[in-house]
Specification:
Number of domains: 1
Strand order of the largest sheet: 1-2-3-4-5-6-7-8
CATH architecture: Alpha-Beta Barrel
Strand content: 15-25%
Bound molecules: 1,3-dihydroxyacetonephosphate
Distance between the termini: 18 Å
Helix content: 40-55%
Structural class: alpha/beta
Radius of gyration: 17 Å
Number of helices: 11
Shape: globular
Largest sheet: 8 strands, parallel, barrel
CATH topology: TIM Barrel
CATH class: Alpha Beta
Length: 249
């Protein structure tokens, strides 16, 4: 049985005071929530938010980390520093990292392995561009991102990996993949994982959908067999919109 996993990616939003206000509201309003929850504030708010959600049912996530443990890497943040702040999960391979900051699969794979090595969990984001979808390459793009992103990851560590399918054309655009389209890609992703890690690991794999998830469409998406949660951007910035998604249905 897979448990639903709803995560909020706050991206580059909020001062510490604003982040604290949201964290407090979520800790109070999700107290009776039944699913797995995570919030990923910007680095500068991790300590503040971490202190406020400590002991709650909300996990602390980071949005990225460096591919190296430490050293002369100006502007980067190490997984060791994240671990020190109580970070539980690192989001890696987000489309904004891939497309704006030109991160490739090899770099993302290095980060995945480093985060796993230090005992944290990973949300690995995959997803196709609009032109790739139109060229019927969505499945192939996701397959490559997963195979390369997970290269060298042992079966024993797969339990600490969540995949987030985020079609790039649906992120922040108000355009959501239909539940049917999303479910078809999720099913394909599960097959890709099954080929490499076996049926048991694939059946247990949590695959989140991301891209304009809102209170109005969350329940229909979550009702699909292969959609096990959501990675929420814009609607995660307010308790009024994140809580109904987190408590969908
Ligand atoms: P939106 O929910 O704003 O479309 O963002 C999705 C996303 O990128 C989450 O990581």
């Amino acid at each position: 049985m897979r448990n639903y996993y709803i995560a909020g990616n706050w991206k580059m939003h909020k001062t510490r005071a604003e982040a604290a206000e949201l964290a407090k509201a979520l800790a109070a309003q999700l107290k009776d929530g039944k699913h797995k929850y995570l919030v990923a504030p910007t680095f500068t708010s991790l300590e503040t938010v971490g202190a406020l959600i400590k002991g709650s049912n909300i996990l602390l996530g980071a949005q990225n980390c460096a591919p190296e443990e430490q050293g002369a890497h100006t502007g980067e943040v190490s997984v060791l520093q994240l671990k020190d702040l109580g970070v539980h999960t690192v989001i890696l391979g987000h489309s904004e990292r891939r497309h704006i900051y030109k991160e490739d699969d090899e770099l993302i794979n290095k980060k995945v392995k480093l985060v796993l090595k230090h005992g944290l969990e990973v949300i690995l984001c995959v997803g196709e561009l609009l032109e790739e979808r139109e060229a019927r390459k969505a499945e192939a793009v996701c397959e490559t991102q997963i195979v390369k992103g997970l290269a060298g990851v042992a079966a024993a560590d797969l339990g600490r990996i969540t995949i987030a399918y985020e079609p790039v054309w649906a992120i922040g655009t108000g355009k959501t993949a239909t539940p049917e389209d999303a479910d078809a890609i999720h099913a394909y992703i599960r097959k890709v994982v099954e080929k490499r890690y076996g049926a048991g690991a694939a059946a247990d794999l949590i695959i989140q959908y991301g891209g304009s998830v809102k209170p109005e469409n969350a329940a229909q998406l979550m009702a699909k067999e292969n959609i096990d949660g959501a990675l929420v951007g814009g609607a995660a910035l307010k308790a009024d919109t994140f809580v109904p998604i987190a408590k969908f249905g």
